[in-house]
Amino acid sequence: MIDLSTLNENQREAVVWDEGPLLVLAGPGSGKTRVLTTRIARILEESAGQHFRILALTFTNKAAAEMRGRVEKLVPSEFARVRLTTFHSYAAELLQQHGNHLEFRPDFQILSNDADREALLDDVLGQLRKDLTYSLPEHFKAGQLLPAITRLLEQCVPIEQVEVLLQQANVENAAPLARVYTAYREALRRTNSLDFPSLIAESLDLLGKYPFLIKHIRKVFKHILVDEFQDTNHSQYRILSYIAQPDPSTLFVVADDDQIIYQWNGASPKRIQALRDDFGVAELQLPENYRCPPMVIELANALIEKNMNRSVGKKPLKAVKQGESDNIVRIFHFDSLDEEAEWIALDISQRSQEEQVNCAVLARTKKLLDLIGSKLEEAGLPAYFAARKNEFKSAPLRMLHSILRLVNSKEDKQSLARLSKSFYELEGISIELAPVLSRASVDGKDLLYSWLDEVKLRDVLEDRTRQLLSIDIKPLLNSLNYRAFADKLFAWAEACQTEAHPDENAFNEFEEEKDVWRILLAEITKKFEGTDVGLHQLLHELDLTSKTPPKPQEAIPCFTIHASKGMEFGHVYLMGLVEDQLPSWAAVKKGDDSLEMQEERRNCFVAITRSQESLTMTYSSEVFGWRKQPSRFLREMGIAL
């Protein structure tokens, strides 16, 4: 029996709610993850033996993995009945299962970086220019057009409407741009490929054209839960609307309009109002904050109440932690940014080792973090940056990933080129693409088989490499056993590492990326209830997941405010609190009542509410050579400067 006695009254009401669709406005540190996972576990426990499933959507793989772990711990016997995943991963699953209606095969490739997307768009432009009955503007280049194509995809503009919509928006060269957009989407289908924005766009197309799929989805998933709803863009909201509308009574949404900081990615306060209008949700608030000291809560409340478009009746945060000690909140002013960064690094270095591992430095921009990172290194403290990493960097992992992609997508020339490049870096043997493509064409073989044949012709091939590419690869080729092959390739790479190589950087990040591979493999296996995940499913999950290595225990996190969302740290240092940084130059230009300024205020609110024990805020009179005024947010928090 799930124990609800440790929940507060509001949390408990949310967990047991059964009176229709519910919106839970959950402030930072209010225990929303606990509420979500306990609610899922409660539903599973009370329906033990039944066959319906639960769909829970969130925005990061890290959040989904954490929630899966909590639910499994609460109800291990029923864990297989919940799908905890991200919006993009769920869209990929939809297209794996039903994409044949749109001419996509289940083994489609996900183009996870702009280089691959640009290469495909370049091919599209080349084909269009061969059509002598129609001419494209000379300045149409793939690199310049890709952002426009991306925006159209993110807005899920249908092919049949794109030209009219572009003309209505007075876009220059509307007709040729519409032609390129149409050809790009057709090329994705022809090559059985999808990129991040088209995963959502094609899923919407699928649900709009085939309503019977929605009935099937709701027959399988009786309950739908959404975490961090305030981060949804319009397209993601439309997907949710499709799958929830047949029976919105079991829709459970957690959001906080004070933490909408992805406006640039389509998030908007309007989304929460649309949820109210479209679904008639009841509302419940979780204002209790279990994370921050009371003094930090006072600052946060004073700051965020200045925003005008908050939910009506939004309650202020209520500090649950009791007791205060000295130096809970500190504010320091410096003459220059360099002095500011040096002082932060020195202050952290003078803390005990136990406190150091609980410190984090937050800033509005990466440029500020680069400076503090160098100062920390000078002070003997390693810095950790949380930049998303779409592709593996070390040659062994790039070689493995390329081989797996070629097994899955037999005519993938981009992966063939990557395979040859990584192999050269490791072995110093150059395999030209032209002979491989020619051999594949003449022999009617897949590109990987033709590449392997070409490699085996080299007399200089070492025995261990011949063993890897002749014998060890067979389980992968014959039965798609990628686990066994990965272990063999890693062992081979470790043996190669002891010798000199043409590219001395071939093994950069190899040890870290081996660990990342194993972590991701374990998480993906757990996500799919411990089943043996198929190769194309594995590749989809790898392409949707960052390859960023986990933080070393002794490293100091240096995160942008956006990257820190959803996290918490013992001691937070928020630097660069000046006008034109936080708030940003664009928000200052727009004015104090602008939507941009309100989002910047939410950024500051998010930053200070990451702190569990102490908050240190710093600012300088000179930043990057320019004189700056202290951030208006300091005054709004009631801090006398």
Jot down its keywords:
641 residues; six-stranded parallel sheet
Biggest beta sheet summary: 7 strands, mixed
State the total count of DSSP E strands: 17
| Computed Rg | 27 Å
Based on helices, strands and strand pairing, what is the structural class? alpha/beta
Helix and strand arrangement:
Elements: H1 9-16, E1 22-26, H2 32-46, E2 53-58, H3 61-74, E3 82-86, H4 87-98, E4 109-111, H5 114-129, H6 142-154, H7 162-168, H8 174-190, E5 193-195, H9 196-209, H10 211-220, E6 221-226, H11 234-244, E7 251-255, H12 269-279, E8 282-286, E9 288-289, H13 294-304, E10 318-319, E11 329-336, H14 337-349, H15 353-356, E12 359-363, H16 366-378, E13 383-385, H17 395-408, H18 413-427, H19 433-443, H20 447-456, H21 463-472, H22 474-479, H23 482-497, H24 510-527, H25 535-544, E14 556-560, H26 561-564, E15 569-574, H27 585-590, H28 595-608, E16 611-623, E17 626-627, H29 632-636
Parallel strand pairs: 1-7, 1-8, 2-3, 2-6, 4-5, 6-7, 9-10, 11-16, 12-14, 12-15, 13-14, 15-16
Antiparallel strand pairs: 16-17
Helix pairs in contact: 1-2, 2-3, 4-9, 5-6, 5-8, 6-9, 7-8, 9-10, 9-11, 13-28, 14-16, 17-18, 17-23, 19-20, 21-23
Brief digest:
The protein has 29 helices and 17 strands.
What does this protein look like?
- By secondary structure, this protein is α/β, with parallel strands linked by helices.
- β2, α3 and β3 form a beta-alpha-beta unit.
- The chain contains 29 helices and 17 strands.
- Helices cover 51% and strands 13% of the residues.
- The model has no long low-confidence stretch (mean pLDDT 93).
- The strands form four sheets. Strands 11, 12, 13, 14, 15, 16 and 17 form a seven-stranded mixed sheet that branches. A six-stranded parallel sheet has the order 3-2-6-7-1-8, sandwiched between helices. Strands 4-5 form a two-stranded parallel ribbon.
